[in-house]
From TrEMBL:
UniProt keywords, alphabetically: Antimicrobial, Bacteriolytic enzyme, Signal
One example of a Gene Ontology biological process annotation: defense response to bacterium
Entry protein name: Secreted protein
A single MF term (Gene Ontology): catalytic activity
Signal peptide extent: 1-25
InterPro entries: Lysozyme-like_dom_sf, Lysozyme_dom_sf, Phage_lysozyme-like
Length: 123
């Protein structure tokens, strides 16, 4: 069941990417908006996700982030906009409270889905 739900989350994220103006990386730390071609934004989100994962690593269970917040996966901030996080985790077949406490850990596909949402949000 969790795999079907994360698929829906990824599909929704992809739709949001294709319906908004694309972002391309002009340098690893600078992003610029463009109004042509949806593929460049998808590639940029993938690049952003790669950078985030390199910096944060991947953790299946919740942990205390060095930034002073509770996180899971690749720095997915569980303390920021809790209603939205609760909804995103529910869509991935997860219980926010159990994940936050460390009682429920994520599968690899769930970590990737949340990472892509964060990468799209930061683009």
């Amino acid at each position: 069941m969790a795999r079907v739900n994360i698929g829906l989350v990824l599909l929704a994220a992809l739709a949001a990417v294709l319906l908004s103006p694309p972002v391309i990386a002009t340098h690893t730390h600078h992003l610029r908006r463009r109004t042509t071609g949806g593929c460049s934004k998808i590639m940029s989100i993938g690049h952003t996700a790669d950078l985030m994962q390199q910096h944060e690593g991947r953790r299946a269970c919740a942990y205390n982030h060095k930034g002073g917040f509770r996180a899971v996966g690749s720095g997915y901030n569980l303390d920021q906009d809790r209603d939205q996080r609760r909804s995103e985790l529910r869509a991935a077949g997860l219980d926010y409270d159990r994940v936050y406490k460390g009682d429920q850990c994520l599968e690899d596909l769930q970590i990737s889905g949340l990472l892509m949402l964060d990468a799209e949000r930061s683009s």
